[in-house]
Amino acid sequence: MCIRDRFNNSCLPFIEHPVMPEQNTTYHCGFYAFYNMICFINVLLGKDSAKQLKHFHRLHNRFSFWLFYKRALDSLVKELVAIGKTSDVENLLHDGPLERYEMQYLLDTNKKIHNLFRDYPEFYLKFIKIFFSFNHFQMASPKELVEIQDTFDEFLGTKIDGVLVVLLGIMTHWVVLVIHREKGAIKIYLLDSLAHEYLNTPQDQIPKNAQAFYEKRSKIKQKELVPYRIKMFTQLLTDLQIIYTIIYKMTLKQENLKQFHANAEIKIFWEEYETLFESFLKNLSIPLTKGNLLDPLKSLIGLLPTIPLEKKNQIGLELYKWLLVHKPKSLRDGIMPELKAVGAKSMSSEWRILMIMWMELQKVILENCPVPEPTEKIDPDNLPKKSSWRFCCFFD
Predict the structure, then answer these.
(1) pTM assigned to the model
(2) Contact 134, 267 (CB under 8 A)
(3) Which of 39, 176, 241, 380 could connect to 59 by a Cys-Cys bridge, CB 3.0–4.6 Å?
(4) Residue 16: CB partners within 8 Å, gap ≥ 6?
(5) Which residues contact 214 (CB under 8 A, 6 or more apart)?
(6) Cβ atoms of 195 and 201 closer than 8 Å
(7) What is the per-residue burial (b if ≥16 Cβ within 10 Å, else e) of 332-346?
């Protein structure tokens, strides 16, 4: 199928960006995403050109969209009232964005979805949802990422033509990627009701793109520019480009969702851990290094033999207190469940090497700096707490 009206995608040429109907209200993106997705799948899988053309015209028919919106909204409101979520009813009626469970409700109950499976039984057809913000997956559980990766592997492993539909929740915006395979060839289509050209913008130019977009919108709606909204829109466009690239690499089997998530989680934990441990070494009452933290293990091993036993005891006691403050509970409750869920092999070799180095560093301190019997009882519960602490040592 040839799509003539499309936006420039020069920076991400692997994503086809056809022009979609533009949302004229702030938070209807979820309804637009759902409606555009239904129409576009029919266009791609339609058995003849007449049916494809009918759905293409329906895609751009405003009356047809608002009719769908009214019916979908009524169905959602009825369901929300039945389950007692009155606050979400108010949110929906005042143009609030679709929540995750509300989008799932539409996927589970909308007749148009059921019609797709009825009309195209010979095609591969599956829907998945991915939530991504601030360069980080925002899933309820890492097991969801495992299931998504398994679905991608299934789609790439089968020879059946069809579509894998990815509903993307990015910050407060919904978009759709339709991954279409026809005669073995794969194309990725972006359906975005922003109707905004941003796949032609390098990452460092996204702030200017966001500024221009909001200046245009503010003139049309005669509203004052809000710097915070421009900043958040800049982040949205950045995240969109990142997740599109990840998904494209997944179709080439060059990216694995489990590994990406594991490395991102480790990076967050590790940056905090490394900063705090380096600070500990620098702020010892008896300096343990001479400022060389590029290779702390080598520096430490060379320095330890020159330190008298009583000073080693002091160092050991200070490390013991530090480890009590940063109890390994946060490690067990934080990063370890994530890694366990996605699989230990998901961690890249670079992170493995770095983690081993820091583990050895602490091991050397504990082996060479024995902890003396404290003159006063150390109560871990009375030590200062680190409210933002997420990562800690590797051993009890």
Answers:
(1) 0.75
(2) no
(3) 39
(4) 3, 6, 9, 187, 188, 189, 190
(5) 225, 229, 230, 233
(6) no
(7) eebbeebbebbeeeb
CB 46 within 8 A of CB 217: no
Contacts of 104 (CB under 8 A, 6+ apart): 129
Six-digit token string for 72: 């979908």
185-191, strands of its sheet edge to edge: 15-16, 185-191, 173-182, 162-170, 124-133, 136-137
- Residues 210-256: pLDDT tens digits? 988 888 877 666 566 678 888 999 999 999 999 999 999 999 999 88
Tokens of 198: 């941003």
Identify whether the C-beta of residue 56 lies closer than 8 Å to the C-beta of residue 94: no
pLDDT-based confidence at residue 33 (cuts at 50, 70, 90): very high
**DSSP3 helix / strand / coil % (the chain, rounded to 5):** 60, 10, 30
Task: Let me know: does 127 contact 222? Beta carbons within 8 Å.
Answer: no
CB < 8 Å & 24+ apart, contacts of 20-25: 20/59, 20/191, 20/192, 20/193, 20/195, 21/59, 21/60, 21/62, 21/65, 21/193, 21/195, 22/193, 22/194, 22/195, 23/193, 23/194, 23/195, 25/95
Residue position matching structure tokens 């990627």: 177
**3-class DSSP assignment, residue 122:** coil
Residue of 250, 254, 100 lying closest to 179 (CA atoms): 250
**Is the four-CA dihedral 372, 331, 346, 133 of positive or negative sign?**
negative
Angle separating helix axes 257-282 and 335-342, nearest 10 degrees:
150
Where is 175: in which H helix or E strand?
strand 173-182
